[in-house]
Amino acid sequence: MNDATGPGLTDELLEDCLQAVHRTVTQGREAAVGEIAAFAHVSPTEVEAAISDLRTRGLVAADPPDRIILTREGQRLAAGILRRHRLSERLLTDVQGLHWDRVHDEAMRLEHSLTPEAEARLESLLNHPETCPHGAPIPVPDMSPPPPATRTLDRVVAGTQVRIEQVTEEDGALLRYLASLGLFPQARLTVEEVAPFGGPLLVQVNGARYAIGRDVAAKILVGK
Fold first, then answer.
1. What is the C-alpha separation between 18 and 55, in angstroms, rounded?
2. Distance of alpha carbon 39 from alpha carbon 54, whole angstroms
């Protein structure tokens, strides 16, 4: 991406906005200006200007007007950005030894500087990983989007055993909390009880029991 226009509309900001929309949509949710702004660490006003620019470039559309969606070309570019981001996270954890709660912000900087050659060499160095350290799928080179994973832990009924597939939010404090409970991707757990009226879930993992709030459970994607 190049030829960014308008004050403050850098290539990095436009790419961050595309990535934020792609992440949200593939999680089965609608992209909102406030959430995009929080992800990109900018103001909602800056996001609105960026979305307007991306719409002019034919990368996003509004249908209906208050709903932000990616065009086919926008999906392709966003998947490429996300691919570089998640490969960068793998580099930081697998090679440099950073903990999973520290790699997101570092990868946000690295992703913008990777050339296609460097990206290909990095993937080979990492032995072609399929997911990032948080369990999110790394888009394949043809940029075809993975099917959205929509089953979150807060929707699991009592008595069910599941496997953690992905933590959808990369906030450092949240990741440190989940790590302290052993709730990493691929960990198996059993939902023993679900409190009524929006109360917490009682889960068992590695022989220990923990009460997990619904807001936290909603950020954990699970499978069988």
1. 11
2. 17
Q: Which domain holds residue 68?
A: 1-147
Is the whole model's pTM more than 0.70, yes or no? yes
- Please report which confidence band the pLDDT of residue 97 belongs to, taking 50, 70 and 90 as the band edges: very high
Do 120 and 25 share a structural domain?
Answer: yes
Tell me: cis bond preceding 137? Omega within 30 of 0 counts.
no
Q: How many whole angstroms separate alpha carbon 131 and alpha carbon 138?
A: 5
Q: Do 22 and 122 fall into the same domain?
A: yes
**Residue among 75, 78, 55 at smallest CA distance from 9:** 55
CA–CA distance, 98 with 106 (Å, rounded to integer)? 10
CB 184 within 8 A of CB 178: yes
Provide the β-strand partners of residue 68: 31, 62
Give residue 4's pLDDT: 56
Whether residue 7 has pLDDT greater than 90: no
